[in-house]
Amino acid sequence: MAALYLLILNGLTQPLDERLNLLVVLGGVALLHNRLSPGWQPRPGRRSRWLGVALLLAVLWRGQRVLGFDFLSSLLPLFTGLGLALLAEPIHELRRFWQAFTILLLLPLLRLLWWAVPTGPFQRASAWLAQQALIICGYPAVRQDLTVSIPGSSVTVAQLCAGINSMLLLFAVAAIFAVLFPMRRPWQNILMVLVAPALALLVNGVRVAVLALILGSALPNREWWFEFFHLEWGSYVFSAIAMQLFLWCYVGWMERQVARVESL
User: Fold this and answer.
1) Average pLDDT, stretch 18-23?
2) Which of 141, 163, 200, 224 could link 134 by a cystine bridge, Cβ 3.0 to 4.6 Å?
3) What whole-number distance in Å separates Cα of residue 27 and Cα of residue 24?
4) Average pLDDT value for the chain
5) Cα angle value 14/23/121 (rounded, 5°)
6) DSSP single-letter state for residue 96
7) How many whole angstroms separate alpha carbon 7 and alpha carbon 94?
8) What's the CA gap between 84 and 107, in Å, rounded?
9) Where are the alpha helices (DSSP H) in the chain?
10) How many other C-beta atoms lie within 10 A of the C-beta of residue 47?
11) Dihedral sign, CA of 186, 178, 207, 148?
12) Minimal CA–CA distance to 250: which of 185, 157, 181, 165?
């Protein structure tokens, strides 16, 4: 019920990127539910019970006042998880839920990163990657700062086209994998967390190249296709591609580690 409330509230007040981030985070927390002991039963302490109820009531009260994209709304899932944990265990036993708290902390972290990360370098990187992709495909692409041109069309990488949202989404996915399915060594987890947004940036460069090709094509409804892959759900096709590439990398590396251990 708590997850359903958060999803409805998020869907009514937050932009699409925030909804996807919440879905990914709640999905990661849901995977932890299967790791509870078969005979586990809630056993809250007296103080934790009242504190948990107070936190959940505070979430309901604050949720009625969420009107849009703000930092406090990203903290509601964390406070909800903390409230539910207090209804399940005494305060001194909350450490058993550290994985869930770590995953829920990703939402405010993503919000802070979205505000703090400068878009300029990623705009230039996306434009450069788009130019290279077009050249590889045989088009005489020319780049002038943030603008990529081919015969018949040109596109400019604006702030919203820098791929920041897709990079943050894959960063969250990689962090959840590192918590739930960690590699053998810490540096391997750190490397995959860094590789994930890099893959998103690479795929975003391909998306910019595709947009340039659509504008330069003879499609009768090319403007519709451009807007679809630029602003609408079609843009998330490329996020899905980047996520699939990450999953292939992660699972492939994990399988190699398992095979190496079994061969010893």
Assistant:
1) 88
2) 141
3) 5
4) 87
5) 70
6) G
7) 25
8) 18
9) 2-13, 16-33, 46-63, 71-86, 98-104, 106-116, 120-136, 164-180, 186-215, 222-230, 235-263
10) 11
11) negative
12) 181
**Residue 155, strand partner residues:** 148
Is residue 86 within 8 A of residue 52, CB to CB? The reply is yes
Alpha-carbon gap, residue 87 to 103, rounded angstroms:
19
More confident residue, 60 or 199: 199
Give percent of the chain with pLDDT exceeding 90.
41
Q: Where on the phi/psi map is residue 149: left (φ > 0), alpha (ψ -120 to 50), or beta?
A: beta
pLDDT exceeds cutoff 90 at 208: yes
pTM of the model: 0.90
Most confident of 197-206, 217-226, 228-237: 197-206
Contact 192, 178 (CB under 8 A): yes
Does the CA dihedral 13-166-234-29 come out positive or negative? negative
Q: For residue 201, what are its two tokens?
A: 């940036």
Kind of pairing between the strands at 142-144 and 153-156:
unpaired
Residue 238 and residue 157 in contact, taking contact as beta carbons nearer than 8 Å: no
